[in-house]
Design brief:
4-stranded mixed beta sheet; Rossmann fold; 18 strands; 5-stranded mixed beta sheet; alpha/beta; Hect, E3 ligase catalytic domain fold; 16% strand
């Protein structure tokens, strides 16, 4: 033992470039000379190259050094670093790490800053400088955010990709008519029909609308999250919202951030042209709030109103709802009907159809139609082929991989920017401009990542929907193979589930035909084989089919 004070040397650099005027080798050389001048023995050297000083996670050499200190491997008295910024930029991490070291009798010397934690003044200085470094970053971030909010106040677009329905030219939002039509349809359907977000997305997909693929890689198909995002965005009524999504620290972590959708945020008059009126946007918001509190009314647990919402009013086209009568005086029997709500209360739609249709009568007729279909000789073979068919989602899977790659790239860019911020020299005359520019680009990456996350949610939902439709379709087809034997044995709630999975709508005549038939046509959710053809809509105009329905209805009545 030579009696010299022992020390560790720790160096860190985020890139191979100069750091605070000194390269990695220059830092190491200066620390060695300091140790030699102070007659210290260097018991170990630790170096992290390419890691940020924002937190100690991922700094393998730093963590190894702390472990060696706690294990009392070399019984060192000091850790030498070039500057405090090389030890860490997060105040909590700096102080926690320093406390760990001092618990084992090890102090920190920051050579360039002239700080020695073994002295009271040095420990105080470390606390202050660590906090200042972190506050400085937060202040610059706040200033950047304040600049963005000022742009919003002035009605200007705040950066990032233009919202669907608009295009960006010289920083200005202009209506993109190729996309604006979809925006108008979404608001019109949501306000003036009973369709929800998922049904509107399905409507757009089924009626030949495709989403324009942007530079941000949006999927060509529409989804419920996309529709909801459109409905909730004030930009479509000519406003600029600030802070709809906010980057916040994850609870329980020190440095991990995530994007959080805000319930309350300021909205300013925009310089751009609106696609929908403010009145329509507000109507959509009112419906969104109402739909958040939809409650299902249950009066008869043994009755399910099998075709409620599927059977359509012959006057206004809205779905007929199930209704229950009070017990009749003659036989004390409760009767169930389908009726149109538009004749009962003001809904914005005038309707003259005031007939209450007996549910058993319609239910028997729909059963008879399906029974007639499945009794055709070619039906079983055609259905079996459908069940064995597969779906091709390869294109969507490729786009999903592209999104995954783009998200990884954005994360990489964000991490690189973070490292570059850590390596800026605070004495640089352009330090504030550079750090503000880095912070702006850093924040933009969070916006890009949030957009990619939204698209990933969309594509995952679309893939799920496609596979569920395939699964549901197969289940329906399997049941159709034994429909006449199985369906009558089901409780009404299962019959209702089958009908909703199989049938989109049942259209009625305004009055029963002379043969007692209500049904004019049936539209299915899946193509079904009828008379050698695949059909989605089946009109009951065929005399032969109508006669079969009448016959089966009477047999089952």
């Amino acid at each position: 033992m030579n009696g010299k004070i022992k020390c560790y040397i720790y160096t860190r650099v985020s890139t191979a470039m100069q750091v605070d005027g000194y390269s990695l080798d220059a830092q190491r050389e200066k620390l060695r000379k300091y140790a030699e001048y102070q007659e210290m023995e260097i018991a170990g050297e630790y170096c992290d190259e390419g890691f940020s000083g924002k937190n100690i996670q991922g700094r393998i050499a730093f963590q190894q050094m702390l472990q060696d200190i706690t294990n009392r491997k070399d019984n060192v008295d000091y850790v030498l670093v070039f500057k405090l910024s090389r030890f860490g930029r997060n105040a909590a991490d700096v102080l926690n790490s320093l406390q760990t070291m001092q618990d084992y009798g090890v102090n920190l010397i920051c050579v360039e800053d002239g700080i020695d934690s073994s002295k009271d003044a040095g420990k105080l200085m470390i606390s202050v400088l660590s906090a200042v470094a972190e506050i400085e970053r937060e202040n610059i971030r706040a200033q950047t955010m304040a600049g963005r909010e000022q742009k919003a106040r002035e009605g200007k677009w705040n950066g990032g990709f233009a919202p669907y329905g608009y295009k960006l030219e010289n920083g200005q939002l202009l209506i993109n008519e190729d996309e604006a039509e979809v925006i108008r349809i979404i608001f019109d359907k949501y306000i003036h029909t009973n369709l929800g977000a998922g049904a509107i997305a399905q409507y757009l997909n089924d009626h030949g609308y495709t989403k324009n693929v942007r530079q941000n890689g949006m999927m060509p198909g529409f989804s419920a999250p996309f529709v909801v995002d459109v409905l909730d965005n004030p930009v479509y009524m000519g406003k600029i919202a600030y802070g709809r999504r906010k980057t916040e620290k994850k609870i329980g972590t020190r440095n991990e951030m995530h994007v959080v959708v805000q319930d309350d945020f300021p909205v300013y008059d925009g310089l751009h042209e609106a696609i929908v009126t403010e009145e329509d946007w507000n109507l959509a918001q009112e419906k969104r709030k109402k739909n958040a509190f939809v409650r299902e009314k249950v009066r008869d647990l043994n009755h399910a109103h099998v075709l409620s919402g599927i059977v359509r009013c012959p006057d206004c086209g809205k779905g007929l709802y199930g209704n229950i009568s009070t017990p009749h005086k003659k036989d004390n029997k409760i009767r169930h009907y389908y009726y149109c709500k538009n004749t009962v209360k003001v809904t914005g739609h005038k309707c003259k159809f005031r007939t209450n249709i007996d549910q058993e009568e319609i239910n028997r007729q729909v059963f008879a139609v399906i029974s007639a279909m499945v009794s055709q000789p070619e039906f079983i073979d055609a259905i079996k082929k459908k069940i064995s068919s597969t779906i091709d989602t390869s294109e969507m899977e490729k786009k999903k991989e592209t999104l995954d790659a783009r998200r990884q790239q954005a994360e990489g860019t964000k991490n690189r920017l973070e490292k570059q911020m850590d390596t800026l020299d605070i004495n640089d005359p352009f330090y504030e401009q550079k750090i503000a520019d880095f912070q702006r680009r850093y924040d933009e990456q969070y916006s890009i990542i949030a957009e990619i996350d939204k698209q990933q949610t969309e594509i995952n939902e679309q893939l799920y929907t496609i596979r569920q439709e395939k699964l549901t379709g197969d289940q329906v087809y399997q049941l159709l193979l034994a429909f006449n034997q199985l369906y009558p044995t089901f409780p009404e709630i299962q019959q209702k589930r089958f009908m909703k999975a199989f049938i989109e709508r049942v259209d009625l005549y305004p009055k029963k035909t002379k043969d007692g038939i209500w049904i004019r046509s049936i539209t299915f959710n899946f193509p079904v084989p009828v008379d050698g053809n695949e059909v989605v809509e089946l009109p009951l105009e065929s005399q032969r089919l109508a006669e079969t329905v009448v016959l089966l209805t009477r047999e089952n009545g």
